[in-house]
# Entry
Amino acid sequence: MEVKTSLLDNMIGVGDMVLLEPLSEDSFLENLQKRFDHNEIYTYIGSVVISMNPYRSLPIFTPDKVEEYRNRNFYELSPHIYALADEAYRSLRDQDKDQCILITGESGAGKTEASKLVMSYVAAVCGKGQEVNKVKEQLLQSNPVLEAFGNAKTVRNDNSSRFGKYMDIEFDFKGDPLGGVISNYLLEKSRVVKQPRGERNFHVFYQLLSGASDDTLRKLKLDRDFSKYNYLSLDSAAVNGLDDAANFRTVRNAMQIVGFMEDEVQSVLELVAAVLKLGNIEFKPESRCNGTDESRIKDKNDLKEMCELLGIEQSVLERAFSYRTVEAKMEKVSTTLNVAQAYYARDALAKNLYSRLFSWLVTRINESIKAQTKTRHKVMGVLDIYGFEIFEDNSFEQFIINYCNEKLQQIFIELTLREEQEEYVREGIEWTNIEYFNNAIICDLIENNQNGILAMLDEECLRPGTVTDETFLDKLNTVCAEHQHFESRLSKNSKFLTDHSLPHNCFRIQHYAGKVLYRVEGFVDKNNDLLYRDLSQAMYKANHSLIKQLFPEGNPAKVNLKRPPTAGFQFRASVGTLMKNLQTKNPNYIRCIKPNDKKASHIFTDSLVRHQVRYLGLMENVRVRRAGYAFRQAYEPCLERYKMLCKRTWPHWRGPAREGVEVLMTDLQVPAEEFSYGRSKIFIRNPRTLFFLEERRRQCLEDLATLIQKIYRGWKCRTQFLLLKKSQVTVAAWYRRYAQQKKYKRIKSATTVVQSYTRGWQARKLLRELKYQKRCEEAVTTIAAFWHGTQARRELRRLKEEARRKHAVAVIWAYWQGLKVRREYRKFFRANAGKKIYDFTIQRIIQKYFLNLKSTMPSMSPIDKNWPTRPYLFLDGVHTDLRRIFHLWRCKKYRSQFTEEKKAVYEEKLEASEIFKDKKALYPSSVSQPFKGDYLEISKNPKYQKLNSAVDEKVLLADVVNKINRANGKGTARIFLLTKKSVVLADQKTGQVKASVPLPDLSSVSVSTQTDGFFALRLKEGSASAVKGDFLLSSEHLIEIITKLHRVGATTADMEQLNVDISDEFLVQFKQDKVCVKFIQGVPKNGNSVSCKRKNNRLLEVSVPTTP
# Structure
């Protein structure tokens, strides 16, 4: 059975701040620090997750953890961001409720990482499939792109998001992602032109210069040295732990996965390079004859390179930096710009160019990741936006950021109370109104259309006359002086007689998170966010396709004299849209807290965390949550957890879970005012009651553990005794068996000894009798042997004497016969005795010669060149003739064994010898290889059935060759078919015929003298097959292919015999051009194989390995 743990088990501190007792700011911080010191970085406030940035990797984000929190109740396991992500995903999938996850906190608190963890968890638990995985990958890979262009290193965070991001992830009815839509808010574009000390510009500038190839930088006219660009701060260009070069490769890969085309990526990089070049443009003052000051560009090299990147005429952009045209109704007035105005125009162009590029990137990513189907989608929104900011010097950016956080706090309180009230109504619990601070009055102070701060700022920017930050502050002092949350030197709330911390050019607003002092310097310019029309029109004239999309207002045909909306107006409208969107979804909150300013692990700065707890409104959140009932739990898990506290419910309760809980609470005598029964949950008012139940449960578990130990020890002792008893019986049985076996062996051994002695005595007695009998037989045998010997010797002497007598008679007879013969022939000796002796001698010599030849005859192999040596000189002619006759005879016998097919093969071998012997170095290695002809078995292989049916004649040769491409010298596999009428080349994979050349169209074949397999089929000029030119091919069976081509040409009546040219350099006709194919000996790059390389348009060089 799976063991489930609870939020209350093994708890370090308090896992849910709602249960904190006593509740105070100090106890709140103490609980956070205690959990942080034990690597517990997540804590709940009801359904809200507090996330502490650990500044190091923890083993709590593994795939095993994902599976552990998958499909689990929110409070079932210890606090984790995965629990919130799983709750939101299951509510969306199973209950069809649109969800939103709001992630807030100050810079460096871990908001971006929290959003990545939420998205990676949802990607891990949703469905699988090729299309689903592609969508998930695109959604996840959009983060590196936006981080590169929208994040920067700040003093608080090395990867700080300098824009707000809201992503709607769309799901189908099964819970699989279909796509998404990203909205961005207020990119900090002022960072492009100026960065505070210790901070960097946006990551993409450093990534481009560090990670791009030298060729890319040369095309973009950039240098790797950061110091050459005015817009890049040098004091913190390198950041520990950030590899800009590797991140650039990651961004390029992510853009490819998201769906950016290569030309789009190049266009984006060109605009980034243009911004860097723009920062290097400097101006010098120059006086005109009429006394007015104007500006001129000092060094026009950077301007020239920027214009080349963007396709703008240099003179057009140079004029736009020097003059400003103001249009009013039908009049145009052109004024010169002084140096300060020129620098303002340059920086305004850089900021607008980069911010519009960023907006275009978001739009382009949305096009790639948007859902393709038009059916209704379930939506999960993830909001990663700046937290409340209180700096030493707070300006317009902090003002609108804090305004956004006021709106988020307002919707947070409203949705939290609404969720509480809905749950109370759903469970049938009486709802009591909760008193809390409503920050609607602060939101109204900022956004009221009549007398709100943003409305007055817009009004001040639009009114004619001299407009400065001081006039804006005067207007605030006039309109907002009576407001209780507004303070300035001239308002009645300032108490400036005692409050010297309020300067003259500042105002203070009492936000829900505390008082913030804003310096009005720059409010008007930043709200105007003006870009001179001359620069917009100059940008529109660029030949760069992307620039035209970014500056549509520069189109002369669509000149709009109406003033563009201010930055404050745009941001207020986008925040209003965001609030409406969030109110339609079920909210889930992640509050991120930064433990220290040193970006170090294991350091908890009390004052810093206390400050964040205040402006995040976490104590207010806990009070709202605890205003009614501090803890609620479904009846089933409540009964399962506490059933051991009552004898009636332990160990099993058979009735409904609610009745069991009622019996349990009655038995424990818990006061009735401390809890209430809902329809499916029990509500506990005070955390003390819950801790009382937990303490009773802990004591009961200790008692149960003692009982279990007692029962276990008794069982273990009984089991041990029974085991010993069984072992004793077994040992006794084995011992008795051993004793009986030993006694039996002793008796058996004694019997064997007695038997052996008896058998020994009987054997010795029999041996004595046999020995006596043997001695008697030996004596008789010896006497008989001596007697037989004597008789044999006597007979031998007699036979020898008789033999001597017979030999003597024979000798005397021979001498007598010889004497008679000599006397008879003596008278004829001088006439013919010499001739007869000579003839006799010659006859004997020839007879001996033939007999010797018979015994030393060579083998019947026609290639055996052995022959017996000649014994006598006079037999020289006979010896030679006999050798020739024998060779002809055995050749005839050898030929009589040939079939017609074998005879044709040998005829081909003979013809190959005539063509290639001593001419082609490849020939000797082909002699031992039989000519097979059909190497592909084209008639039997079903793969080539279509090709076989396309060829009418009988196939004489079928092989795979490589057709050499003249463009790069690489080979393409082709099927080579030779019939009696034509040569056919077909595709190896599909069997489709690529070329068919009639044999009469062939004029010659060219090969080299080397060991390569290259050959060229030369076609007759003017023939129909010569349109595409000659064929340069390569084959492992070159000797066989050319021999068969030569034989077919010789046997065909209407075709001239095919010429075979053997040379290491020959010309091949490719369409209209002649290309020289040259063979050289060397060491090819790919080892021992032949390689072909194109040297130029007229030469193909073939490298052949040197013959050893």
About this structure: Residues 1-5, 494-498 have pLDDT under 50 and may be disordered. Residues 856-896 form one domain. Residues 984 and 996 are 4 Å apart (CA to CA). The chain has 31 helices and 31 strands.
